[in-house]
């Protein structure tokens, strides 16, 4: 009796494994095994948050946007030093001393806009704030 070629046996084994893997994987458009997304706020409730998505003009309110675009605008860096607080029963803006110094720096950078032909200079300046 003739023995099978070891290389041929390996090739057949690889084909079988690849076929089995392809049959058990989820298709690219499949939603299999995904958990449902639950909203953070139940319908009828409002959440306290920034009423704008970008910039230094911050205000807090219950009409905060649910979704903001991913663009970056001058002043967005400073927003990390501010928050909205609803612990006292009303939605109020709370800023830290870092916000005030960052805002002053960014406002100085925005003044450069009128002095330069390169708008990127404003962002380079802001990065140093």
> How large is the count of helical segments?
3
Mean pLDDT: 75
Strand-pairing-aware structural class: alpha+beta
How would a crystallographer describe the biggest sheet?
2 strands, antiparallel
SS elements, strand count: 4
Output the strand order for the largest sheet.
1-2
Q: What percent of residues are in strands? A: 5-15%
Give start-end ranges of low-pLDDT stretches. 15-20, 23-45
Which overall shape is indicated by the principal axes computed on the Cα atoms? extended
Output the keywords:
129 residues; alpha+beta; two-stranded antiparallel ribbon; two-stranded antiparallel sheet; 4 strands; extended
Briefly, what is this?
With 129 residues, this protein is α+β, with helices and mostly antiparallel strands.
Overview of the molecule:
By secondary structure, this protein is of the alpha+beta class. Helices cover 33% and strands 9% of the residues. It contains 3 helices and 4 strands, in the order αββββαα. It has helices at 6-24, 97-112, 120-127, and strands at 49-50, 60-61, 82-85, 92-95. The strands form 2 sheets. A two-stranded antiparallel ribbon has the order 1-2. A two-stranded antiparallel ribbon has the order 3-4. Helix 2 (97-112) packs antiparallel against helix 3 (120-127). The longest helix has 19 residues, at 6-24. The radius of gyration is 28 Å and the shape is extended. The chain starts with 5 loop residues before the first helix and ends with a helix.
């Amino acid at each position: 009796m003739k023995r099978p070629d070891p290389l041929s046996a390996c090739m057949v084994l690889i084909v079988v494994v690849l076929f089995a893997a392809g049959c058990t994987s989820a298709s690219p458009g499949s939603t299999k095994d995904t958990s449902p997304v639950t909203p953070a706020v139940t319908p009828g409730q409002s959440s306290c948050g920034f009423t704008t998505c970008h910039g230094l003009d911050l205000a807090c309110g219950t009409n905060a946007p649910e979704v903001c675009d991913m663009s970056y605008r001058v002043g967005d860096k400073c927003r990390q030093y501010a928050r909205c607080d609803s612990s006292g029963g009303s939605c109020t803006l709370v800023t830290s001393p870092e916000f005030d110094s960052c805002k002053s720096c960014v406002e100085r950078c925005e003044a450069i806009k009128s002095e330069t032909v390169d708008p990127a200079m404003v962002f380079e300046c802001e990065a140093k704030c």
